[in-house]
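Schema walk-through. Below, the input block comes first and the output block second. Nothing else is stored per chain. Lengths vary across the set, and this one has 155 residues.
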Amino acid sequence: MAGRPRRIAVIPGQAEDSTLSRKTTIPTAAEFRLLDILWRLEEGTIDELLRASADDRPLNYKTVQTVLRIMENKKFVSHSLRGRAFVYRPRVRRDEVSRTSLRSLLKRYFRNSPSELLVNLLEDERIDTKELQEIEDLVRNYRKAKGLTALPTSR
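--- output ---
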């Protein structure tokens, strides 16, 4: 990948030593899948991750082990020992990963334009009347909370 890697902050207090970086790269799809499970479980061994993903596409033990090792190098997860098993914990928060991923998406595909992203969603995706009203309400509430001039209501 050309240019500098995209970065997100790690969860404060999760570093096991003071030499760890305070930033890390955006997770791949496989890494995000494991993070999603860890965010639900809060911590887990490889076997616990495999059981938690049973409803999903099944995971392979060795693949999970390899991906977790890579994720640890990227500082997405940390581990401790429980007996002989490694117990993994997320070191990044879901909201930080989501926010940074969205910023990357906006920059890469929508010229840093949230309105261009929204127009694409409205034109290309099936958004029912209820969801469209929720989006309008979210924008209206955001504007009100920020003290911005409110848009006229369409009701």
